[in-house]
Each structure stands twice: as C-alpha cells, then as structure tokens.
Amino acid sequence: MQKILSLLRRCVEDYDMIAPGERVAVGVSGGKDSLVLLAALARLAQFYPGGFSVEAFTVDMGTPGMDLSPLADYCRELGVPFHRIPTQMYHVIFETRREKNPCALCAKMRRGSLHTALLEAGIHKVALGHHYDDAVETFFLSLFYESRLSCFHPVTYLDRTDITQIRPLLYVSEAMIREAVPRLQLPVVHNPCPADGHTKRQEVKTLIASLEPQYPKLKESVFAAMQRLPLPHWAPRELRRRPPTE
Question: Which segments constitute the tRNA(Ile)-lysidine/2-thiocytidine synthase N-terminal domain (predicted)?
Fold first, then answer.
C-alpha cells in the first residue's frame, strides 16, 4: 500500500488535485480500482498538509443479485461516510430499452445520478478510479475508433455542474491494484453486468497484452508521450513524468 500511496500523492501534487480542507467524494463502484482509491485517499487524508475529508458515493443501479452492504461496512471501518444512490438504471437499460451497446448510456446515467447526489451534499470534487492502464487503453480507443489523439484529463472541470473530476490513480498500474486487493482484504463486489468483459475496451486491453512481449515498454512509452506532447491538460506540474513500476 505504501508504494500506491506514494504514487497517488505524487499524482495529486503533480496536477494540484486537492486543496487544503476540501471535501472529496470518491465514486465507489465496488470494483478493485475504486476500492483501492478509497483506501488510499482515506489514508492520505490523515496526514496530507492542510488536510481534506473523504466521502464515498455509490450508484446503486438496481442490478439483480448485487449486494452493496460490504461497501457500507468497509466505509464504517475506514471512518468514511457512505452514500448509496438508489436508481433503476439496470431495469431501464437492459429490460426496458434492451440496449445492444449499453456502456455509453450507462456511463451517462451513472454520471448524472452521481453529480446530482454530490451537489445535494454540497460537494464539488469527485475522485474517479481510472488508473495508468486505463489511460493508455483510452488513448488507443480514441486513436482506433475516433481518429483522435486524446484521453480523459487528470483533472476535469465541468462548468455545467461546477464539479471537478480528479483521477489520483493515474500513476498506479492495474497490476499494483490487483496485488493490493488481497493484501488489504478489500470487499470487491462482483459486477453482474451483462456487458461486462465484452467491450471495445476489453478488446484493446487484449491487444496491448499481445504486443507487450515484443514491446515491453509499450504502455510506459504511450503514457510518457501523453505527458510530453502534452495532450491537453496532461502536462504535470514541474514536468515530473516518472512511470509507475509494476
């Protein structure tokens, strides 16, 4: 956890993500990425200069068989307030509309529900669990399917809602996160989504894995290029671009 915490703190500082005394929401899906983010931010909040507070927000999509109680229990252990946002998204997307490509609509609806809950709670900053590998995969997705050199931003201000999204795990690899889950005994909630594992992102993830034996520094090179170009909003403060270690 110490290595993840170090990388997370450096990312927060490189991109000026958190101000002293700020309330920071964490979007917790129940997956490994958001739980590691929650654990690391809760720990960082204890000693970060100026301090900040952390609160967990989970969008309950109404998915059959999905039990979110372990998330609430874990937040109590951390001393972090837990907010469950009830919705009927699963019913709308998969039963009423029967979407063949549901990911974009699902993401839009979850984002809308989360932002509404944040504003009701008076919170204007939310941390999302996108990590190092997610950034590289998103770059390739934009290149292959949109003909653009693009990626989500480390920090994104949404002027329509006055909410700022931050991604503090950008220096942390998926391998590091996966290894941390059993060590920290995180209560990962299985995602029973019908589209899980059958997406364009999964195709790109598989492609990158197939190329890595021949190009072992592929992800490192792409990530460094995004900062050195830089892509919009990707230049870190003081240009610190050290890649994570697996």
Answer: 24-198
Number of domains in the chain: 1
User: Is residue 125 within 8 Å of residue 41, measured between CB atoms?
Assistant: no
pTM for the structure as a whole: 0.89
Assess contact for 129 and 27: CB atoms under 8 A. yes
Neighbours of 212 (CB within 10 A): 12
In a domain, 245, yes or no: no
> Residue 206: which domain range?
2-239
- Inter-residue contact 59 to 31 (CB < 8 Å): no
Work out the burial of residue 143: count CB atoms within 10 Å of its CB; fewer than 13 is exposed, 13-18 middle, 19 or more buried.
Answer: middle
> Is 246 within the bounds of a domain?
no
Q: What is the pLDDT of residues 78-92, one digit of tens each?
A: 999 999 999 888 788
Q: Is the peptide bond before 230 cis (omega within 30 degrees of 0)?
A: yes
Rounded to whole angstroms, the Cα distance separating 71 from 168 reads 20
Alpha-carbon distance 197 to 190, whole Å? 12
What gap in Å lies between CA 104 and CA 106, rounded to an integer?
Answer: 5
In sequence order, the β-bridge partners of residue 27 are 57
The CATH number given to whatever domain includes residue 75 is 3.40.50.620
Contact 128, 176 (CB under 8 A): no
Q: How far is CA 67 from the centre of its chain?
A: 21
- Whether 244 maps to a domain, the answer reads no
Residue 36 tokens, joined: 């590691």
pLDDT in tens, 141-192: 999 999 999 999 999 999 999 999 999 999 999 999 999 999 999 999 877 7
